């Protein structure tokens, strides 16, 4: 059984590197829980509003992590995480906990683990499942792996941001949580793709999408996530994004690469990723991933503006 927390361990200072959709929401919940929070973002304008919530906005990663008990990274990909942590290195000290919550590729875990070992950090591979709304409510699902002995020190951070924590192991460098997160996101991409194609086909055939949902209501084909994403398209509400098109496209690439390394081809994820990439190319990268729906009409669009669009 874990020992009782000391007063210091109840209120660890947390450095949040990356204040996009998810990082900003997590930082706000950390502040609301009474923890001292420092934030840094590559684009300072995304971090500055957090000062009004009580976070200290740092000018550099080094400044953010200097003296922090927990470093939380929530950036775009593995390369950006490693770059930020290398910039933070002068402020790091042995014994700090590193909660790495960015969705990264399986091949990127090794370099991150090596960096942690080099600097004496306790690495927690802790990607999160959830979008803007659960992040803002502190109701994320955290998929975590890391040293058992240090978990009480991390508990106040997890309590502030998560509704549930699923532990996959005690070695943060083994990549068990990242692997599970990629499996989860493969399903998210499939469901989002299905929602977009459902609405596109319904509109192309002159069918009200609501007729479909009335038909499947309460049955095995009914799915709340499918309803949610389809509703964004029907109502034209793809901004602000809960899960951006560009980020989803990045995750699709990571999933396909991880599968290919094991000799597995994922045709569905490849197709969903291609649709997302077309949406990015069309300038929709910052919209909700549901906006990939517009890729259904790419070859038909002739400039007359008559085809359905996402928003």
Percent of residues in helical segments? 40-55%
DSSP, total strands: 9
What is the top-level CATH class of the largest domain?
Alpha Beta
Largest sheet: 6 strands, parallel
**Count of domains:** 2
Strand and helix order: HEHEHEHEHEHEEHEHEHHHHH
Number of helices, counting only DSSP H or I runs of 4 residues or more: 13
Structural class: alpha/beta
Measured distance between first and last alpha carbons: 52 Å
What CATH calls the topology of the largest domain is Rossmann fold
Strand content: 5-15%
Strand order within the widest beta sheet? 3-2-1-4-5-6
Cα Rg? 20 Å
- Under the CATH scheme, the architecture of the largest domain is 3-Layer(aba) Sandwich
The pLDDT mean sits at 92
CATH level-4 homologous superfamily of the largest domain: NAD(P)-binding Rossmann-like Domain
Low-confidence stretches: 1-9, 300-307
Shape: globular
Descriptive keywords:
311 residues, 2 domains, N-(1-d-carboxylethyl)-l-norvaline Dehydrogenase, domain 2
What's a concise summary of this model?
With 311 residues, the chain is an alpha/beta fold.
3D structure, described in words:
By secondary structure, this protein is α/β, with parallel strands linked by helices. The protein folds into 2 domains: 7-174, NAD(P)-binding Rossmann-like Domain (Rossmann fold, 3-Layer(aba) Sandwich); 179-297, N-(1-d-carboxylethyl)-l-norvaline Dehydrogenase, domain 2. It has 13 helices and 9 strands. The protein has helices spanning 7-10, 21-32, 44-47, 61-65, 78-88, 106-119, 132-136, 151-161, 176-204, 209-216, 224-235, 245-260, 267-281, and strands spanning 14-17, 37-40, 56-57, 70-73, 97-100, 122-125, 128-129, 140-145, 162-169. A 6-stranded parallel sheet has the order 3-2-1-4-5-6, with helices on both faces. β8, α8 and β9 (162-169) form a beta-alpha-beta unit. α9 (176-204) packs across α11. It is globular, with a radius of gyration of 20 Å. Residues 1-9 and 300-307 have low confidence and may be disordered.
């Amino acid at each position: 059984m874990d020992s009782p927390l000391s007063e210091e361990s109840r209120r660890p200072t947390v450095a949040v590197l990356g204040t996009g959709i998810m990082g900003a929401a997590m930082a706000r919940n950390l502040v609301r829980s009474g923890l001292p929070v420092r934030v840094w973002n590559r684009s300072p304008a995304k971090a500055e509003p957090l000062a009004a919530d009580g976070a200290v906005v740092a000018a550099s990663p080094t400044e953010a992590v200097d003296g922090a008990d927990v470093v939380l990274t929530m950036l775009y990909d593995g390369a950006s995480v490693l770059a930020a942590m290398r910039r933070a290195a002068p402020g790091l000290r042995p014994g700090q906990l590193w909660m790495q919550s960015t969705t990264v590729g399986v091949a990127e875990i090794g370099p991150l683990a090596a960096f942690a070992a080099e600097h004496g950090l306790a690495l927690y591979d802790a990607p999160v499942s959830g979008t803007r709304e659960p992040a803002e409510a502190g109701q994320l699902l955290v998929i975590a792996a890391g040293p058992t002995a240090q978990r009480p020190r991390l508990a106040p951070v997890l309590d502030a941001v998560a509704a549930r924590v699923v532990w996959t192991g005690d070695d943060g460098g083994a990549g068990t949580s990242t692997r599970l997160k990629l499996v989860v996101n493969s399903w998210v991409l499939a469901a989002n793709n299905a929602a977009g194609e459902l609405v596109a086909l319904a509109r192309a055939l002159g069918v009200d999408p609501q007729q479909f949902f009335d038909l499947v209501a309460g049955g095995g084909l009914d799915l709340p996530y499918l309803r949610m994403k389809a509703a964004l398209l029907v109502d034209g509400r793809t901004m602000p994004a809960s899960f951006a098109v560009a980020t989803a496209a990045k995750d699709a690439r990571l999933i396909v690469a991880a599968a290919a390394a094991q000799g597995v081809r994922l045709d569905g994820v490849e197709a969903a990723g291609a649709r997302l990439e077309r949406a990015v190319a069309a300038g929709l990268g910052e919209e909700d991933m549901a906006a990939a729906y517009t890729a259904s009409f790419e070859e038909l669009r002739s400039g007359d503006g008559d085809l359905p669009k996402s928003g």
